[in-house]
Amino acid sequence: MTDTVKKFLYVNRKAPYGTIYALESLEVVLIGAAFDQDVSLAFLDDGVFQLTKGQDTKEIGVKNFSPTYRALGDYEVTKLYVEKESLDERGLSEADLQELVWEDEDDDYAEKPSIHIISRKEMADLMANQDVVLSF
Amino acid sequence: MSTLHTVNKSPFATKTLLSCLNHASKGDSILLIEDGVYGALKGSELAEIITTKAKDFSVFLLAPDMKARGINEDKLIENIELVDYAKFVDMAAKHDLNQAWL
Predict the structure, then answer these.
(1) Residues B55-100: tens digit of each pLDDT
(2) What domain count does chain B have?
(3) C-alpha span between A82 and A95 (Å, rounded)
(4) Given an 8 Å threshold on Cβ–Cβ distance, is B1 in contact with A129?
């Protein structure tokens, strides 16, 4: 093991229930959280649908994994970047997304937002400045 | 710092290639593989927008995937470089970062 911390970006571009990608990504993020790396999550294109609130899968017979995103903060995964253009194209706004927070132990456990809305240009820069990009 | 992007979906089925072109950084390399090779077809309804957006990048095509689909070299848009599997591996190793567009 080395002490080197690498920048990992998980790129999410698919809607949650039509394919298994979104759930697999979330599982890999949770497993990867054990390795104490600098982790960011990107949500763009149909990936923004993963974070919408009010998901109810009772009638389609699959697990609603959307509440699991709320656990990410406890695994020190606190940087979720959502592309504004992708939201706009789909008629969504930040108000349609779950509120996700993390507790900052260096700031008296203040709750801080995990979701950051960024532009397409900022997303491009985020992608370019990583050590590892994992796509889902 | 430059990235090798791979795209494996037809641009006529998904917006994957367009999304890649919209997020890659100037000077990056884009390699079309599997059904992604259809993105290099000359005269398609998407050829113009792809050609325009691709100007900032180096675009490559995996020749075995092109040949498998019966696409001849003269059917390709301009400024595309054909590569084989060995060159693909070489490119993956030589870039700082690899990003797959699925």
Answers:
(1) 999 999 999 999 999 999 999 999 999 999 999 999 999 999 999 9
(2) 1
(3) 13
(4) yes
Handedness of CA B80, B50, B23, B19 (dihedral sign): negative
- Could you list the residue range(s) of the whole structural domain that residue B51 is in? 3-101
With beta carbons under 8 A apart, name residues in chain A contacting B33: none
Q: Quick check: ipTM above 0.90?
A: no
Which residues on chain A place their C-beta less than 8 Å from a C-beta of chain B? 11, 13-14, 21, 44-45, 120, 123-125, 127-133, 135-136
- Residue-range domains of chain A with CATH: 7-135 (3.40.1260.10)
Residue-wise pLDDT for B16-39, tens only, equals 999 999 999 999 999 999 999 999
How many Cα neighbours within 13 Å face the side chain of B93? 6
Nearest alpha-carbon partner for A94 in A64, A126, A70, A118: A118
Residues B50 and B17: their CA atoms lie apart, in Å, by 8
Place of tokens 């497993």: A31
